[in-house]
Design goal:
Layout lengths: L1 H35 L8 E2 L15 H5 L4 E7 L9 E10 L5 E4 L6 E2 L6 E7 L23 E4 L4 E9 L14 E8 L25 E4 L3 E2 L4 H5 L1
Parallel strand pairs: 1-8, 5-6
Antiparallel strand pairs: 2-3, 3-8, 4-7, 6-9, 9-10, 9-11
Length: 232
């Protein structure tokens, strides 16, 4: 009888564990693995691997369009490099918390340091690092956003982008010091009519590209000292 009760308890325990993984796993497990194995396991797909839309005039998610605040940002950072051949890596995680697919403005080589009031992803240091700002890397917002400059993020999906800063840019003059903070942002003020595929003359179903307009920032994260600096 006692063995039977123990077996029943184990079955109930396994069932509850499975339910916990089903409910909390999609959100908590990737973050747990990313924190446990930084630089090896990431929270999501690289943003550059996400597909671009093809015909936003006819194919959009109604749930995605209806979402008023779909995005959440998280940032992680490596320690300040101790040698000139090192890299300071800033990992940006963009999460779609809505139940629909949402587009966002993204050009892999235009994730900037600083903020020049253009649409897209970027990072900001505090105190501001004017010498590191690459505001010229992202031009002014165009009148129309091409599909090539958009990516689609599915329901509850997350993607990651890494900003890598060579140590030579920050070690000279101690531009970045331990305890300085970095935060990520995504902003968009673009909303233009969708383009139809060549040869398609059908009346558009949607009047615009369904882009979320607004700004979201991550919590700031302190940049730690290098391991060698800590042990000295």
């Amino acid at each position: 009888m006692r063995n039977l009760l123990q077996l029943d308890n184990r079955i109930v325990g396994i069932f509850l564990l499975v339910m916990l993984l089903v409910i909390a796993g999609p959100q908590a497990l990737p973050r747990l693995l990313s924190d446990t194995f930084p630089g090896i396991v990431y929270e999501g797909t690289p943003c550059a691997w996400l597909r671009s839309p093809e015909d936003r005039s006819a194919h959009q998610s109604l749930l995605g369009r209806a979402s008023t605040s779909p995005f959440e940002l998280r940032v992680q950072t490596t320690p300040i490099p101790s040698s000139a051949d090192g890299i300071l890596s800033i990992l940006i995680t963009l999460t779609n918390n809505s139940l629909g697919t949402v587009p966002f403005v993204y050009v892999p080589n235009q994730v900037i340091i600083g903020d020049n009031n253009t649409s897209g992803l970027g990072i900001i240091f505090d105190p501001p690092q004017v010498g590191l700002q690459t505001v010229t890397a992202r031009p002014s917002d165009p009148a129309t956003v091409s599909n090539a400059n958009l990516r689609l993020l599915g329901p509850r999906q997350r993607c990651v982008h890494t900003v890598e800063i060579p140590a030579g840019n920050i070690l000279v003059g101690n531009i970045i010091s331990p305890g300085d903070t970095v935060r990520a942002y995504y902003q968009n003020s673009l909303q233009s009519a969708p383009s139809s595929p060549p040869g398609v003359a059908a009346t558009p179903i949607y009047p615009d590209q369904g882009l979320w307009i607004g700004r979201v920032e991550s919590d700031p994260v302190a940049i730690p000292a290098s391991a060698s600096a800590v042990t000295e």
